[in-house]
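We modelled the chain as a single entity of 262 amino acids. Its sequence is:
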Amino acid sequence: MTTKQSHVLHVGDAEVQFYRDHGYFVYQHPLFPQEKFQRLQHFFEGMLAELPAGKRPEAMDVPHFAHRELFEWLFADEVLDFVEAFIGPDIVLWSSHFISKPPGDGKRVPWHEDSAYWAPRLDRHEVLTVWLAIDDSTRENGCMRVVSDTHDHGFSDYEPVDAESHVFGLEIVPEQVDQAGIVDLELSAGQCHIHHAKTIHGSDPNTSDRRRCGYTMRYMPASVKVLCDGLQATHEVYLARGQDRAGNEYGDPRAPFVPVAG
């Protein structure tokens, strides 16, 4: 299958079934054409250079709220055709996040499920995250890791961890992380992997001499209902393709969005 821009999509029934069976899938092909991907890399470098003093580069969450230029990639046919193969034609952009681990002291991402953090916000945790490698992502510089076949639960028990050395301060208790099921998801820059919102995942610290950055682009079927009165004051979702199926309110990607401090 080819997109409107003649970009070949290497996804068929076997790849979709792998994702459904295991809760993740590694796409070992360029997601975007080279020139388009390089423009995203360049745009990220500009954002990183302007990061306020004291703000960690792992914490560049929902950058599309302030940088509407990112919708060029978030709504691109290449990524939406890819996502549609897994979740269908009615697609909502839930969120995005640059997670950049600097060389030498990049923080560890503790074992977690995205669903545990989003529990009160969605009626079903059918969110697919596209993790696009801005840099090469390897075991040495802290690539993402998943625990295969864990997407049938999504609400494990958590305990505190040191927030100084971790991206956030809670982690799934060790006895609920099956070490035998851990898979390292290594990528070359421009490739991506996907994971389900209920899949256990994390990553080691980056103690190497090379940065590791990924851009997470998070999508869900438009049949998922966004919950919580007042959420619209702090978070926007966007209808990326197709039709609304849940009666959600959607933001305008052309208009600035400024979250209201709670």
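As a brief sanity check on the tokenised model: Residues 110 and 123 are 25 Å apart (CA to CA). The chain has five helices and 13 strands.
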